[in-house]
Amino acid sequence: MFTEQLTARRTSAEELENAIPVLALDLDSLKCVETKAVNFSDWGCKLVGEGLGILNKNIALKLEEEDEFQRGKVTGHKADYVTVLFQREVTPSMEKRGEPRYPVTVAARIRDLARKIEISCMITDASRSGCRVEGADLSHLPDDLLVYVEGFERPVRGQVAWKEDLTAGLRLNWEGASALK
């Protein structure tokens, strides 16, 4: 499995040399494009090449040698690439939460309470009491934090329930940050 991190920078010549051919299928229009993928990780990749403008939000990717497609969401369109977050399937037997989580794709920033550390991330599923975030260096998250969600006026106070390098689960306290700006 590839462990490179997904980045939002221009594609280098070295990345293009190691690019993997993929078939990208837009699940809404059923249009597809043969393209290349770079920066593969467990949570996403970057597509590079011609014809990426046909891809909308919900897509599926198929590697040349694979039999099945991998679902994903387009999280950003740039002039020369598209960023993709993979969607993980959760079966009811795996779900142990008291309330359902809903798949979302929302940009956010996480800061420590002293506001000295800031980490950009993507919220990929959410409920009233918690969410999953994905991004780089999440293993360095402080236990108590503030989540600045794109489009929200104030941050939401949170605590880390679990964390790995590229994903983390957060408990949210909506009243905990009401006095903060």
Q: What do these coordinates show?
A:
This is PilZ domain-containing protein. InterPro entries: PilZ_domain. Pfam families: PilZ (PF07238). It comes from Roseibium polysiphoniae. The chain has about 180 residues and is an all-beta fold. The protein folds into 2 domains: about 15-85, predicted glycosyltransferase like domains (Thrombin, subunit H, Beta Barrel); about 100-175, predicted glycosyltransferase like domains (Thrombin, subunit H). The protein has one helix at about 15; strands at about 20-25, 30-40, 45-50, 60-65, 70-75, 80-85, 100-110, 120-125, 130-135, 145-150, 155-165, 165-175. The strands form 2 sheets. The protein has a 6-stranded antiparallel barrel with strand order 1-2-3-6-5-4.
Largest sheet, in brief, is: 6 strands, antiparallel, barrel
Strand order of the biggest β-sheet: 1-2-3-6-5-4
Main CATH class of the largest domain: Mainly Beta
Q: Percentage of helical residues?
A: under 10%
Number of strands: 12
Beta fraction of the residues? over 45%
The fourth-level CATH homologous superfamily of the largest domain is: predicted glycosyltransferase like domains
Pfam families: PilZ (PF07238)
Protein name: PilZ domain-containing protein
Domain PilZ: 95-171
InterPro entries: PilZ_domain
Short summary:
3% of the residues lie in helices and 47% in strands.
